[in-house]
Amino acid sequence: MRLLSLNKYISFLIFFLISTSIVNSEDTIDIWERKKIQKLPKSPSEQSNSEKKENLIIKTKKNLDDISVESSISEKTLETKLYGTLDPEQNNFDLLMWSNTDGSKIRDIIKRISKLNLSKSSEELFINTIMTYSYLPQDMSDREFLDLKLNWLLKNKKDKLLENFLSKNNDFHNKEKVIQYLVDKNIARANLKEGCKKVNFISQDIKDAYLEKFKIYCLVFNNEKEKARLLLDLLREQDLSSKFFDNKINYLLKISTKTDEKIKDDNLLNFYLSSVTISNFKYEPDKSTPDVIWEYLNAANLIQLEDWTNIKKIQDLELAANSNTFDKIKIFEIYKKLPYELNQLINAEDIHQTFDNVESRALIYQKYLLSDNIEKRIKYLFLLKDLFKKDNLSNIFTEFMSDELKKMPDDKIPDSYKASVVKNIISDKNLKIGKIKYNDKVLHQSRIIRFYTEPGTPKQKTQKDLDNIYKKIKKNKKYFFSAKDLILIESLRNDGFTIPKEINYKEISKNYPIPSNFTQLVSNNEKGFLALKFVEILGADEIQSLDPETLYFISNILNEANLIKFRNKVIISSLPLRI
Question: Is 156 part of any domain?
Fold first, then answer.
């Protein structure tokens, strides 16, 4: 049977529902939230979150005329709650971007992506894809799909995105987990003022003991003691409080003059309450201490190393620094304070292997600081790199080494080290890609691309530029029509421009075959999965670093899938000549 367009199906469905309701004298039923439709439209400020999402569905469905879907969209699909932060149209997606994709494919690719160190470009594409309102993939529950998204955000510490998600989605699975994460992050930063603001996300229907306790502490923190007492009484009545918590809050409320000296580290709130109520608070973290407690100890400056011969304590601090929960720079400050004899420092390179691993690193680091010869300093940095790598602590040293190498004058670095030095310098991820310089002798660098690089450029002017510039270029008999030229021409054609007849782009495109599995994804309208495939291809690379053949393949598929926003980013990032 020929597949029907979504618009036709929805029109039929709405007509059927209205007809049925008239016959049976029943109220009209909303096909998404199953709520009664208001007789009069509300203003945007009066609309509820669900009504805004309903309008989003209707708005999106109007733009799906060219998408073929099965004529039997299930009632379950239409009733599914939508979670996200981005309107589908914002990035040329639609509500059905996952509907034709098997859930197992989504699980597998997100699992693979989670193991990658994503570049700025690939991470942006990933976030824009997973945070778009949409229906579910096949054979996947809304809870599982939501968990895949939220777990990635939690793992990658995307605090702003999580707050935005909370503000735009009133009720969802694991909401308490997200709020507690945000609360704990601010406690860990010793920033209770910001942490207490997260209390606003705790709605009346959430009955979570941890969050209720934190809410009570925030009332104490903000000197709203009467409210704190009332909530504490309610918590006790519901049997959700604890002896430890009651003891600490009573002390802070000055109901009691003494507090338990016991330190509890079963969660961050209890640990924090211990630290602010016990005088001369001391705590010795170790490798089993949760990361979030390490973060708080570091932020609150509660980690003290009084015995510089305590190698076990230094090892624990190294492990914490390597997992980004203790300041890496403080490790090198500790290394400076380890005591060595002058003879040991003189012969450090020969005798460091006779020391414990911590002492060996500290000895070579001190030797590095004492050296004034560039070649020797570079040599000691590479030796330190090996020593950190040996104990799987490279995360401590990688950025430090890069920063130290950047300080060294290029003309002083020996030729034998230059390649290795460049390889170990971390490029500036925020480096601007440069100002555009238009070159009308090369098609993809010409002022034609102003249509993409300078928003608002008139289409008529761009068409004129295309005709005039191509007339000049075709006079060059040696001109090579490159993959980047092809990217520009196919994109212009896709955007409604008239391409000069002499440019046989279809013939030229045969030199750059497109993998059939990607064209199949376009045919199946698997836009969400297609975007994730490109995230996986990009990985740690920025768009502009890809080879021309790969860029063409990506832009071609994006044109076919009508993912124009991302295609434009490919054009802007990779085609223009920059200075």
Answer: no
